[in-house]
Design a protein that fits this description.
There is one protein chain. By secondary structure, this protein is mainly beta. The protein is built from 1 helix and 26 strands. The radius of gyration is 35 Å and the shape is elongated. About 5% of the residues have low confidence.
Length: 280
């Protein structure tokens, strides 16, 4: 075999890749390709050579420059988010009873079973776990972000989760910190920056209002009933026979004088024209 160095031919090719091909004339055309190095391409700043069989004949060497292809840049994803997709809660039957842990897609134990119950990881990489009837949060490495001190932890919505303890309901952020020390008698998940809450009035009747994401009472508890915000509005009951659609600042968008009006859905609201009458 003969080796031909081509470095002099590609001087100045500082960037890119060089592809070479060697062909042999078979009497009709350049139809016989002579195999070269295993690599399809070699860099221009390295020794470039081709090999030719030690057999008499006509040979042709083709070479060309191929620009470097741009790298595909993947979006940055936190490690916890990647791992969370691969972990699944699973019950383990042990001598002391059934405990929950997490397995990966191959069924191997990723987080040892030590919980009375475990939920799926959420999009933020956190999962609710229970121990001795109390709920806490862990990340996908099994580290406790919130110790099991709450009687309930709802799924996160808009970066907040509703939690409850003996003092009532409040909100925590994704670091597990309570955003406010205030407590409500009841609290819904955050929707469009507003969380529906209720508290008892001096007459013992529950009234409804709205918190913001920081747990601030932006709309006081003055409504006899209320629903979550959706598409920029929420339905509230002002008093018997009077309902209203309000915006997030509490401004009335429309008033309905009916015995009953249901929550909006697909742009429509169910209602009764007469007490105990039919619905439309």
């Amino acid at each position: 075999m003969l080796r031909i160095i081509l470095n002099e031919l590609i001087k100045g090719w500082d960037n890119g890749l060089v592809q070479t091909e060697v062909w042999r004339w078979d009497g009709i055309g350049w139809n016989e390709c002579i195999p070269q190095q295993e690599e399809d391409f070699i860099r221009a700043d390295e020794d470039l050579f081709v090999t030719i069989p030690a057999v008499a004949g006509l040979y042709r060497v083709d070479y060309s420059r191929k620009p470097l292809e741009p790298l595909l840049v993947l979006p940055e994803v936190e490690e916890s988010a990647l791992r969370a997709e691969l972990l699944h809660p699973a019950p383990f039957k042990l001598k002391e009873g059934t405990l929950w842990g997490y397995i990966n897609n191959e069924g191997k134990t990723a987080i040892e079973p030590r919980y009375d119950y475990a939920e799926e990881f959420q999009a933020n990489g956190l999962a609710v776990v229970q121990r001795k009837d109390k709920s806490g949060l862990i990340d996908s490495t099994g580290r406790e972000k919130v110790k099991p001190v709450y009687s309930f932890i709802a799924p996160f919505s808009e970066g907040r989760a509703v939690v409850s303890d003996a003092k009532g309901y409040t909100l925590i952020d994704e670091k597990g910190k309570e955003v406010t020390p205030a407590r409500a008698d009841y609290l819904n998940s955050l929707q469009e920056g507003r969380a529906l809450f209720s508290k008892q009035s001096t007459t013992g009747k529950s009234l409804y209002g709205y918190w913001d994401a920081q747990g601030k009472e932006v709309l006081p508890a003055v409504y006899e009933d209320a629903g979550d915000f959706a598409a920029g509005s929420a339905l509230v009951k002002i008093k018997d026979g009077e309902y209203a659609l309000i915006d997030p600042q509490g401004a009335v968008l429309h008033t309905y004088h009916h015995p009953f009006v249901g929550y909006p859905g697909d742009g429509l609201l169910a209602f009764q024209a007469e007490e105990n009458g039919k619905y439309g």
